[in-house]
Write a structure and sequence with these properties.
Length: 180
């Protein structure tokens, strides 16, 4: 009788361990089939301020260097899409990174009339670079994370890099790096 009870205990213990292994494998498979979404958000590089009436200036030489630097800083990241507002300075900032990733066309967005639901659905499971402005970039980050955490960027700051990650579970993480 003792042998039978011992065998039954071992059998149930083994079945319990097998069930845990199967559950762990299902979790790993779920994470593989449901990729995370990662957003990299930056402000445009240094713009030409020589003509105060120019509402659509190009980048300065320093700004062009920073745009090229962003493509190297983000060189290990494989982007699925690059978004930019429809201004010379943002497009010029986004272009080197887009080209490095073989992305032929920038996705142009209007931050004041943005379909956030469509944007989030369309970028789900992807890695995306978004280039905006001192006021629109932190606002977009705050919308993505669901919290008013970040304030407008100082007009002299072109070095902020925000990274927002959305896991398949819906959990969100965010970090601000300053790359000067």
């Amino acid at each position: 009788m003792k042998k039978t009870l011992l065998l039954l205990a071992l059998l149930f213990g083994s079945l319990s361990l097998m069930a845990q292994d199967i559950e762990a494998e299902a979790t790993v498979e779920e994470e593989i089939t449901l990729p995370k979404t990662t957003y990299y958000l930056i402000r445009h590089a240094e713009k030409d301020r020589s003509n105060v009436s120019d509402k659509n200036p190009h980048l300065t030489q320093q700004g062009l260097l920073r745009a090229a630097k962003w493509s190297y800083v983000l060189g290990a990241v494989k982007f699925d899409a690059v978004y930019s507002t429809d201004y010379n300075r943002t497009r010029e900032t986004a272009l080197p990174t887009a080209e490095k990733n073989g992305i032929a066309e920038l996705n142009i967005y209007n931050p004041s009339n943005m379909d956030m639901k469509g944007f989030v659905e369309g970028t789900s499971g992807k890695t995306v670079l978004v280039v905006g402005h001192s006021n629109t970039t932190p606002k977009l980050v705050n919308t993505l994370i669901g919290s008013d955490k970040y304030e407008q960027i100082d007009d002299s700051n072109n070095a902020n890099l925000y990274i927002v990650t959305v896991l398949p579970s819906g959990e969100k993480t965010d970090v601000l790096l300053v790359i000067d």
